[in-house]
Amino acid sequence: MAVNKSKGNMETESSSEQWVSVEQVAQHLNVKPDTVYKWLERKDMPAHKVGRLWRFRISEIDQWVKSGGAAEVKRSDAE
User: Fold this and answer.
1) How far apart are CA 63 and CA 79, in angstroms?
2) How many independent structural domains does the chain possess?
3) pLDDT category, 13, cuts 50, 70, 90?
4) Residue 1 maps to a domain
5) Is the dihedral of CA 35, 36, 38, 39 positive or negative?
6) Per-residue b/e over 26-40, b at no fewer than 16 CB within 10 Å?
7) Residue 76 lies in a domain
8) Distances (CA, A) of 42 to 10, 21, 35, 73
9) CB 2 within 8 A of CB 38
10) What CATH code is carried by the domain that includes residue 39?
11) Spatial contact of 23 and 34, defined as CB atoms under 8 Å apart
12) 45 and which of 23, 39, 54, 75 could share a cystine (Cβ 3.0–4.6 Å)?
């Protein structure tokens, strides 16, 4: 992610994008929140921990899904 140095602070290109919660990501992807937590544990889902809470950028989630990050694992691989 590129850093915008034209301003006095270290603002990133996507700084105007809202941070969203596990529940909002689940709704966006039409899955249950438990599925999001499983992906966080097993699938290297792009997320940022803020205190005890997970926060996401929808653009990062969409890119992760498009690259196959949410694809199902074959049963023989899941063991």
Assistant:
1) 27
2) 1
3) low
4) no
5) positive
6) beebeeeeeebeebb
7) no
8) 31, 18, 10, 10
9) no
10) 1.10.10
11) no
12) 39
Q: Whole-angstrom Cα distance, residue 48 to residue 45?
A: 10
Residue 6 has a pLDDT of 36
- pLDDT confidence of residue 73: 63
> Please, are residues 70 and 64 in contact by the beta-carbon 8 Å criterion?
yes
21-67 pLDDT, tens per residue?
999 999 999 999 999 999 999 888 999 999 999 999 999 999 999 99
The two structure tokens encoding residue 4: 């915008």
What range defines the domain where residue 28 resides? 17-66
Phi, psi of 60 (to 5 degrees): -70, -40
> Taking the model in full, what pTM does it have?
0.70
